[in-house]
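Entry 12.
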Amino acid sequence: MRQLDLTVISNEQIARDVWRIQLSTDNCQLSTDNCQLSIAPGTFVNLRIDGHYLRRPISVCDWEVAERAAGTPPLHTLTLIYKAVGQGTRRLAAYQVSECVNALAALGNGYTLVDAQRPLLLGGGVGVPPLYYLAKALVKRGQAPVAVLGFNTAAEVFYADAFAALCETVVMTADGTAGQKGFVTHAMPGLTYDALYCCGPEPMLKAVYGSAHELPAGHAQFSFERRMACGFGACMGCSCKTVTGYKRICKEGPVLTREEILWT
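Predicted 3D structure (tokens):
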């Protein structure tokens, strides 16, 4: 876990109630003593938002490190996508360019990149963003992912073009106003895959769990959402029961393998 002071470089609405904020830092702490901050796909940051006691956890959509002139620290850019639905996230949507945001970074247990030729990425709503950073990592490893992005309606669709620039992409909407009509599980029977990564609301995760074909141990990974207080495992408030006992979604999760999950 690292604490970062970040500067807003953009904050814009990209779909109905959905916003993208990009934050940057050239914090020398990230470049000294050969200590580069590694943010893995599927992890999250916990933002301190003005006027709110509890931080807000948001999954990492992208993390880029740009080298600059010799003697100048690299520029780190963090991209987050969030839904402005509560007081905290609505306040976040009001942040302006050049304002500062404090974040606890590299939190949680992210996706484990397994050896596969054609991994399947399934995202629902604001479960889509962490899969973008994952897709970039998989493509970099020489894999050919296919992404299925699920939304309720066309007004809520975002990042479909960004995914399509990386890999084969299918858009599903519940009402059929964009892409194909149906849920992400409706696209699964027509696809071949040898690994599965999923992120979205729990009913979707449960449906995917029941629809996925058998894969080797560790090759089916599910990212769970829970209300969090501390975000780093101290308060135990986000614990859930698994086949090996209770685990904290903010610490041992949010990503769990199929073999660990115990539906209640």
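Annotation: The mean pLDDT is 93. The two ends are 31 Å apart (CA to CA).
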